[in-house]
Amino acid sequence: MIFYRKFLMLNGLAASAFILFFSPGISAENAPDKTHVESGYYYTIQKGDTLWDVSEHFFDSPWQWPDLWKENSQIPNPHRIEPGERIRLHREKWNAANPDSVIKKDPAVNTAPQGKKPQETPPYYLYTAMDQVGFIRKNPGKSDGVILKSKEDKELISHGDLVYIQPEKSAAETFFPGSRHTVYRRLSPVKDRDAISRIGAQHYLTGAVRVLEKTPRFTVASVIKSFRPILNGDLLMPHLSRSSKIPIVKSPEQLHGKIIVSEEHDAVMAENFIAFIDKGKIDGVAAGQRYSIYYQEKQPDSRSKESMLLSTVDIGSLLVLHTEQTTSTVLITHSTQSIPPGATIRSVSAQSQ
Hints:
With 353 residues, this protein is mainly beta. It has three domains: 1-131, no CATH class; 134-238, Beta Barrel (Thrombin, subunit H), CATH 2.40.10; 249-350, Beta Barrel (Thrombin, subunit H), CATH 2.40.10. 7% of the residues lie in helices and 34% in strands. The protein has helices at residues 51-59, 65-70, 91-95, 195-198; strands spanning 16-19, 35-44, 86-88, 124-127, 135-137, 145-150, 162-167, 180-187, 201-214, 219-226, 235-238, 245-247, 256-262, 274-277, 290-295, 298-300, 307-309, 313-323, 328-335, 344-347. It has a six-stranded antiparallel β-barrel with strand order 6-7-10-9-8-11. Strands 13-14-19-18-15-20 form a six-stranded antiparallel beta barrel. The radius of gyration is 23 Å and the shape is flat.
């Protein structure tokens, strides 16, 4: 199976980026178009908000408001911000709300906007590539159909190509002119032959199609999105419609798990990689929750035959994008070193324990 490595070039958490998919043996002219991706932590201004209050609310210090204004140059006057305006909350300032962080007040700042306290509206993470995010599902069931071939017999099908689809009988009524469907490929998340029965099947999203014509035996559709090259034999499911705005919510306490694998099955992972964890809805995991990635070494105890656990070391953090019953899809938002499959994760609130 061919995988296409993803690289996101981001400036902080709120910059634009491009995703490049490539594989040895695929020429540049056959590669998909570059896709613009925007991501980062944001907050929507509510009636009565001021930068002073927003800074105090999210960073535990109103004196951070000049930095907040500096990072949002679209605001001409810090004393006047309009309801509905979107402002960025950068990672460094977001983490400043952590009790372990040190907040430095600027003694030169002696004035601040006045007004009401911000309403309890949570910040959100914006990830505009949500329609490309796959998942691992324990019991995937049958697909709605399969792509037979492209009209021009292309091996790598992409945006604008016409394809022939054979719908499953049980889903035939869902294919009609104008209907949209997500294209995907089923993969084993790990090399273990029993992985699909134990963990589930990885749904690797490759694109989306819109039906143009329906006949008794097949359907003709146009590829309206191609996240990766679409192949003959790729499957179809109902069109996925997801919001790119993910409200930040509290994680359950004392939850521990591990990263199964990255979406592209990379040997190691880093910041901005999509990955899967072994916890899902039944464990209380929900989109918008944040978790720490850590490791903990064992050291032989010279006084006994048993090993002792050393202090935990955080090496990154992740944000949940999508949840299934027993697994979740996550975005690695920060890393200080390479992260291997199998890396352990824990609730953010467990850091001080």
